[in-house]
Amino acid sequence: MTTIVLVQGDITRQSADAIVNAANSSLLGGGGVDGAIHRHGGPAILDECRRLRASHYGKGLPTGRAVATTAGELDARWVIHTVGPVHRASGGDPSLLTSCYREALRVADELGARTVAFPAISTGAYGWPLEDAARIAVEAVRAMDTAVEEVRFVLFDDRAYEAFAAQLG
After folding, report:
1. For the chain, which end, N or C, has fewer CB atoms within 10 Å of the first or last residue's CB respectively?
2. What is the domain extent for residue 9?
């Protein structure tokens, strides 16, 4: 049984087996959570992302998919990069956002990760409405058959924390 924990704070300060990055499809860093993970994790993450782009993901990582790299200087073994959907561009298709959580947990299982820290995927610049994103995230994790023992949602502010707390009841 997976335990779901909520934490308000900075995902780059978490200690976990795997930290999930709300990446862009280029895998080469960006703003928000993606930029923070690359900055705090150091150049080793970008180096592995460049190798992934040169081999398996020449056109970038597709929306809803996930792939792992080293965590560099973060207090984790791995970073699991997943590309969330842009709300307006996807038409608000919940299956794409659900896929981010399922795929990240699938990769975590392949790695043997037991603790995984997630941000609120797609709720920043990608514009997914927070309450809907929280519902999708919690439902996706609860429905997933995974060996991950703890899923930690690391939420940046009060509003996000409260949206996720409301979903956990």
Report:
1. N
2. 3-168
How many structural domains are present in the chain? 1
Rounded-to-integer distance, Cα 83 and Cα 96, Å = 9
Kindly tell me the number of DSSP H helices and DSSP E strands found in the chain. 6, 6
Whether 158 is a known active-site residue: answer no
What is the β-pairing status of strands 150-155 and 66-70? unpaired
Which position among 10, 17, 34, 145 bears the catalytic label?
34
Q: What is the pTM of this model?
A: 0.97
Q: Residue 8 maps to which CATH number?
A: 3.40.220.10
